[in-house]
Write a structure and sequence with these properties.
Layout: H1 4-13, H2 20-32, E1 36-40, H3 46-57, E2 61-65, H4 72-75, E3 77-79, H5 81-93, H6 99-106, E4 112-114, H7 116-122, E5 127-131, H8 138-150, E6 152-155, E7 159-162, E8 168-173, H9 181-186, E9 188-192, H10 197-207, H11 213-227, H12 237-249, H13 257-262, H14 271-279
Parallel strand pairs: 1-8, 1-9, 2-5, 5-8
Antiparallel strand pairs: 3-4, 6-7
């Protein structure tokens, strides 16, 4: 990858339109071998960037979805206890009584379940997506920090597994809480905004080639206004695409207020937001 401009072109070929700031951050992450931490509102394209980078690099995407209570065994590795027990029973039935031999056999690599972090270290090349890291407990960040510092995982029964070629790492956060400074220091950082009107129109036309220009412009204009309204969950790019696709399925070539209201469930996912939008005439005659 010779430049951010070239990366922008490669992403655009796969219908991901990155602005200069995001393309530069992603390029530097690739060139410097550093994790990229993306923060921003839900639906602005953080996860999609990781997916598209995997396509650009022709590498598998390995995803670790973070959540409250996520621990090391679910992120690093675990032992397949059921298979280990079956092996012990089979060995016992076969007359094997050497305890040291049995212990060595049950902690063989074939009984190890590789979770996302170990899979990413063992796979070359790979793109590792650590999605919604802000949803995990603060203690889990210490595990991430250790793995992302050395790209190595210590397994007491087997030794240390090191990445021959570190994966490309993308972390995303919706900023439901602050990510610890120690983890941020390990990463390059970029904040994703909602797209401009022109870029959102281009995204809609790129992802939905059958969408008419007037419909794309009117949808982008409407969602732009809704993001300025007092909504519980303003629509992101993903919801805009869903809404446009729903409107097209209903035969819309322009943003008809009746069809817009009927398909609003593709755009907004809270009853209160529906009431705010319908009650305040946000779906009236659209304007640019």
């Amino acid at each position: 990858m010779e430049s951010p401009a070239r990366l922008t072109e490669l992403l655009a070929e796969r219908a991901y339109l990155a602005d200069e700031g995001l393309a530069t951050a992603a390029f530097l992450a690739l060139r410097m071998g550093r994790p990229l931490l993306l923060e921003g509102e839900a639906g602005v394209g953080k996860t999609e960037l990781a997916r598209t980078l995997a396509a650009v690099l022709d590498a598998p995407l390995i995803r670790l979805q973070c959540y409250e209570g996520l621990d090391a065994s679910q992120a690093l590795y675990d032992w397949d206890f059921a298979r280990q027990l079956l092996h012990l029973k089979a060995a016992e039935a076969g007359g094997v009584s050497d305890a040291a031999r049995l212990e060595g056999e049950v902690y063989d690599r074939r009984f190890l379940i590789a979770r996302p972090l170990l899979r990413a270290i063992e796979t070359q090349p790979a793109v590792l997506l650590i999605d919604e890291v802000d949803r995990a407990d603060v203690e889990f960040e210490a595990i991430l920090l250790e793995v992302l510092s050395d790209f190595a995982i210590s397994i007491p029964e087997l030794g240390t597994v090191r990445a021959a070629r570190p994966p490309v790492v993308v972390l995303t956060s919706n900023r439901t809480r602050e990510v610890h400074d120690a983890l941020k220091r390990r990463c390059l950082y970029h904040w994703l905004e909602h797209p401009s009107f022109e870029r959102e129109v281009a995204i809609l036309r790129g992802r939905l080639p059958e969408c008419s220009r007037i419909l794309a412009e009117q949808v982008a204009s409407a969602t732009g206004r809704l993001r300025q309204a007092d909504l519980i969950k303003p629509p992101g790019i993903a919801e805009t695409l869903d809404w446009t696709e729903a409107l097209m399925a209903l035969g819309a070539r322009e943003l008809d207020p009746g069809l817009a209201a009927a398909s609003l469930g593709a755009l907004l996912k809270h009853r209160e937001d529906h009431e705010t939008v319908l009650g305040n005439g946000f779906l009236g005659a659209p304007r640019r």
